[in-house]
């Protein structure tokens, strides 16, 4: 058997030669003094040769370990060459990786397909909630009770939805590791029943009585606030879209309006919300988001024409007070409602509930059990950028711009209902500090 001293002493000769150890292992020495460990064996009645490593990077002891591993594979009826080739192709790991190492590899692979805000949210949640306690642990040492204890700590600070999102991310990390041959039990699978149930969906305060809505609009029209903020509130009420979409509305999203002749027929006036803004507003992870067309009523067009006199040179329709290159504050309209006495009664997002409730009730009164009632309910959902019940994402992809004539009729009806008795636009612009009488 070889010794370390004998391996070091092996000198090059005119021709390559080998120095035998035992069990088929030998040291191959080339004329240029390149030394490598090789293992000779028989498989399927044929002599085979497997290179185990280069000396001195691979020591005699390591070479013997690799020989013993290869002989074990032979006893199991497997060819050691195939295992070696597989390790080179898939990148064999030395032992089971720790959670943080695997998580960061998974994140680097997935993040290019995510929006930057979501990619940052994913890694931040892991760095905050998972890595401090579990990051240095090998994946095979993390079991369900251990993961559950970490998720419970997240729940105990009131972040129930976050705990479930973190659990899903841990599950994906284990799926990633197993795809690379780890063969691990996924501790995030089958523990939903041990987590706290999700809280009921948040209900936004909203007025659903027409007279109260008209009073609110009158109060806001006469409030002591910037005309841009008051017109933004009016446009939000008329379109019933999400407040973030109205805040970030830009002039290039509006079409079908002749700005040089505001009194002309504006039957094709349209606001097209880009798909990227839909995704950002809803924090969507998937790609199932589409441009959202919003037909504009006569009153919505008049609102845009009025505010264009004030902000037409800015990119945003409703810019902030500090910079025309930034939208109005996220809380500007909400604070205005609160100052006028509507705190806890109506919020900016509440216009969506107001629109849905009143328009659905009106359709039911007029149409009864008529099939048109079902159609109108679906159309009202489309107007709110909701996916109607029973409609698949692929169907929505092709149908989202259909029913436009009816959508325009309903938008105009809603505007006529809520704007009865509203203050003229010129009074809002000319008297920004007008107080309520």
Please identify the structural class as seen in this structure: alpha+beta
CATH class call of the largest domain:
Mainly Alpha
CATH topology of the largest domain: hpI Integrase, Chain A
Strand count, sense and barrel status of the largest sheet are:
4 strands, antiparallel
Oligomerization status of the protein chains: single chain
Mean pLDDT: 86
Give the neighbour order of strands across the main sheet.
1-2-3-4
Per DSSP E runs of 2 or more residues, the count of β-strands stands at 7
Strand content range: 5-15%
Low-confidence runs of at least 5 consecutive residues? 89-93, 432-437
Please, how many helices?
19
Radius of gyration: 34 Å
How would the global form be characterised?
elongated
How would you sum up this structure, described in words?
The protein is α+β, with helices and mostly antiparallel strands and 437 residues long. The protein folds into 3 domains: 4-90, Integrase, DNA-binding domain (Double Stranded RNA Binding Domain), CATH 3.30.160; 99-194, DNA polymerase, domain 1 (Orthogonal Bundle); 210-430, Orthogonal Bundle (hpI Integrase, Chain A). It is 49% helix and 9% strand. The chain is built from 19 helices and 7 strands. A 4-stranded antiparallel beta sheet has the order 1-2-3-4, with helices on one face. A 3-stranded antiparallel beta sheet has the order 5-6-7. A hairpin with a 2-residue loop joins β3 and β4 (46-55). The protein is elongated. Residues 89-93 and 432-437 have low confidence and may be disordered.
In short:
This protein is of the alpha+beta class and 437 residues long. The chain contains 19 helices and seven strands.
